[in-house]
Amino acid sequence: MSDGSSFYITTPIFYVNDVPHIGHAYTEVAADVLARWHRQSGEDAWLLTGTDEHGQKILRTATANGVTPKEWADRLVETAWKPLLKTVDIKNDDFIRTTDERHEVNAQKFLQHLFDAGHIYTGEYEGFYCVGCEEYKQPSDLIDGVGEYAGQQVCAIHSIPCELLHEKNYFFRMSTFGDQLLALYEENPNFVQPESARNEVISFVKQGLSDLSISRSSFDWGIKVPWDDSHVVYVWFDALLNYITAAGYGHDDEKFSRLWPATHVVGKDILRFHAVIWPAMLLAAGIEVPRQVFGHGWLLVGGEKMSKSKLTGIAPSQITDTFGSDAFRYYFMRAISFGQDGSFSWEDLSARYQSELANGFGNLASRVIAMIVRYCDGEIPVGGDFSEADELIRGTEKRVTDAATLAISHLAIHEAIAAIWELVDDLNGYITAQEPWALAKDPANRARLEAVLVTAVRGLGTLAVLLSPVVPQATAKLWTALGGTGLVTDQRIDRAWEWSGGPRVFPLEALFPRIEATVG
């Protein structure tokens, strides 16, 4: 179905120091929805996710648990991070681990290239280092501690004191790329989005860039610096390279040429790494910069960022075990403006499940299928003369398809779903106004009844296509019930209203069953 154009999208690769929470799943689902949408638009879409397994934080966590770092990483990847993808129904094309040989070997190639080109030198550095962030912190990144850390400066993200480190390391001449980065942001305003993220990055770079320490010699859990095996590569310098090593850099030129550049979806707390350090690294290597870096907001629980250390982490399975993966995907993509912070609550999740999914979309699907079974013995009518009300529904199908497609091009997933939901609401209103149950009582109204039913079933099929990237399990069931041709994922989403199906409908179980108890 590919039309030859590519859309390469990535999530961050996640630290394996702990199990995932819904903040991680939120990023995975957003990238997956975008990949599915582009795939159904005829593009060669490729979704990458994975795990970041090197660095001091992983070493300390593994040691505290009495295992080697590799044993710890293997355990977490197989029991937590890969199962997460199934839990929230992610259709990724690749899963990279920074301990994979394909990554380590080609990351070393990249580093050697920069060294040979004179972009790396030996130097000394002293500063406050947050092991949680794996980053040296500037004074502006620190805040006053509270509780047991009162009177101390702590990391603004992890709320723990930083460590004063003095190391002799290898440095990347990042300071030389400030002007090029500012020119990039100016010439391509979409490179960093949303606008608030772009403004933050520009302000940071305008303050002047320092050179970046890219090696560590105080511990040995990491990729060896190729010309000096007494040093390992700084974990972020290592991790950022996953986006190109997975795409073929250093070992598959054809694949790399086909896929690169990528769209990176990241949390705003790691925006600077992706929008400043990463493009500077690529500029130094003579490689095209990413297509876009999109920094989404945080998930907040009780007004605080989702965090295992603060006991605000919620496992995705706590939601999916009760509501299902489709409801998880729908809720977080619809309830939160993508790019902004958003608060999670069990009450809001439960309310939206009932009103929007069960009553709005699910009940609509059940009613339409049931009426065709009852009034037409399951055969989809051909329809005849269509009224203005019927044509308005047809117009809505086309209008919301175009609106959703435009929203997705800006990564505004919440706007796309809101546009699609206009068709859900219009169809429900249309059925209420046309009263097919009343029309069915008089044979003289047969033609009108059939026109109403075929209009409703056409709209329902369009919804199945448009919502398939968001709620893939429900739409697959609906597609089967509608007698849709092939798989719903094979339908062109940018021409959703053109879907085709068979002559009859089939039984449909409740797409979003009633949930008796609210969890939380």
From TrEMBL:
<keyword id="KW-0963">Cytoplasm</keyword>
<feature type="binding site">
    <location>
        <position position="158"/>
    </location>
    <ligand>
        <name>Zn(2+)</name>
    </ligand>
</feature>
<keyword id="KW-0067">ATP-binding</keyword>
<keyword id="KW-0862">Zinc</keyword>
<dbReference type="InterPro" id="IPR014758">
    <property type="entry name" value="Met-tRNA_synth"/>
</dbReference>
<feature type="short sequence motif" description="'KMSKS' region">
    <location>
        <begin position="305"/>
        <end position="309"/>
    </location>
</feature>
<dbReference type="GO" id="GO:0046872">
    <property type="term" value="F:metal ion binding"/>
</dbReference>
<dbReference type="InterPro" id="IPR023457">
    <property type="entry name" value="Met-tRNA_synth_2"/>
</dbReference>
<dbReference type="InterPro" id="IPR009080">
    <property type="entry name" value="tRNAsynth_Ia_anticodon-bd"/>
</dbReference>
<feature type="domain" description="Methionyl/Valyl/Leucyl/Isoleucyl-tRNA synthetase anticodon-binding">
    <location>
        <begin position="401"/>
        <end position="491"/>
    </location>
</feature>
<feature type="short sequence motif" description="'HIGH' region">
    <location>
        <begin position="14"/>
        <end position="24"/>
    </location>
</feature>
<dbReference type="GO" id="GO:0005737">
    <property type="term" value="C:cytoplasm"/>
</dbReference>
<keyword id="KW-0547">Nucleotide-binding</keyword>
<dbReference type="InterPro" id="IPR033911">
    <property type="entry name" value="MetRS_core"/>
</dbReference>
<dbReference type="GO" id="GO:0006431">
    <property type="term" value="P:methionyl-tRNA aminoacylation"/>
</dbReference>
<dbReference type="Pfam" id="PF09334">
    <property type="entry name" value="tRNA-synt_1g"/>
</dbReference>
<dbReference type="InterPro" id="IPR014729">
    <property type="entry name" value="Rossmann-like_a/b/a_fold"/>
</dbReference>
<dbReference type="InterPro" id="IPR015413">
    <property type="entry name" value="Methionyl/Leucyl_tRNA_Synth"/>
</dbReference>
<dbReference type="InterPro" id="IPR013155">
    <property type="entry name" value="M/V/L/I-tRNA-synth_anticd-bd"/>
</dbReference>
<comment type="similarity">
    <text>Belongs to the class-I aminoacyl-tRNA synthetase family. MetG type 2A subfamily.</text>
</comment>
<comment type="function">
    <text>Is required not only for elongation of protein synthesis but also for the initiation of all mRNA translation through initiator tRNA(fMet) aminoacylation.</text>
</comment>
<protein>
    <recommendedName>
        <fullName>Methionine--tRNA ligase</fullName>
        <ecNumber>6.1.1.10</ecNumber>
    </recommendedName>
</protein>
<feature type="binding site">
    <location>
        <position position="130"/>
    </location>
    <ligand>
        <name>Zn(2+)</name>
    </ligand>
</feature>
<comment type="subunit">
    <text>Monomer.</text>
</comment>
<keyword id="KW-0436">Ligase</keyword>
<keyword id="KW-0648">Protein biosynthesis</keyword>
<feature type="domain" description="Methionyl/Leucyl tRNA synthetase">
    <location>
        <begin position="8"/>
        <end position="368"/>
    </location>
</feature>
<dbReference type="GO" id="GO:0005524">
    <property type="term" value="F:ATP binding"/>
</dbReference>
<dbReference type="InterPro" id="IPR041872">
    <property type="entry name" value="Anticodon_Met"/>
</dbReference>
<dbReference type="GO" id="GO:0004825">
    <property type="term" value="F:methionine-tRNA ligase activity"/>
</dbReference>
<keyword id="KW-0030">Aminoacyl-tRNA synthetase</keyword>
<feature type="binding site">
    <location>
        <position position="133"/>
    </location>
    <ligand>
        <name>Zn(2+)</name>
    </ligand>
</feature>
<feature type="binding site">
    <location>
        <position position="155"/>
    </location>
    <ligand>
        <name>Zn(2+)</name>
    </ligand>
</feature>
<dbReference type="Pfam" id="PF08264">
    <property type="entry name" value="Anticodon_1"/>
</dbReference>
<keyword id="KW-0479">Metal-binding</keyword>
